[in-house]
Amino acid sequence: MIMKLFTLASILLLSFHVQASWLKFGHVTPFTESEYKIEINASISKINKTSVNFHLTNLPKNKDVFLIQTKEHRPSYEQKFREEIWDEYIEENRRTKMNTGYEKNQSNPIILNVKLKPVSVDKYGIKVYSIDIDKEKMKTSYIYIDYPKSVRDGGYYYSIDLKEYISSL
């Protein structure tokens, strides 16, 4: 009986470790799109020549897409917006006083956080997003892709750094 409990405990601990090690952040730029298998088409907007249209396809299923704008541009290591968009996650960590490793950036706060809706969904459930954004606002804007709340199965979460697309237009 003790051996069975030890084996069960070992399996549970090992599987938790494997899940935790699978969580990974992806900083998406024109040079890393293929690495993350995300398709982004950026072009000057037909409606307003000072805007850029981003057409996104092949995004991960079951994840939400957010348009985030900050006061100033953030380097890639500060584009992990999890704690800043996961209200439930933030409250849970405040209650348990748990150190998550994610800190709100007080000196460069989010000034816009909008959950985007897909413009279409194909027969396979693949969502397509399209957004027009002013070129000047691109310098401090990101398309953030993540689960809507904390999950235990890991996987990638992404920040598409829109500033990186200015030179490719």
Overview of this protein structure:
With 169 residues, the protein is of the alpha+beta class. It has one domain. The chain is built from five helices and nine strands, in the order H-E-H-E-E-E-H-H-E-E-E-H-E-E. The chain has helices at 2-22, 33-36, 82-85, 87-96, 135-138, and strands spanning 24-28, 39-44, 51-57, 64-70, 110-115, 120-121, 127-134, 141-146, 156-161. The strands form two sheets. The protein has a five-stranded mixed beta sheet. Strands 2-3-7-6 form a four-stranded antiparallel beta sheet. A hairpin with a 5-residue loop joins strand 6 and strand 7 (127-134). The longest helix is centred in the first third of the chain and has 21 residues, at 2-22. The chain starts with a helix and ends in an 8-residue tail after the last strand. Mean pLDDT is 78; it is low at 11-21 and 97-102. Residues 1-20 form the signal peptide. Keywords: Signal.
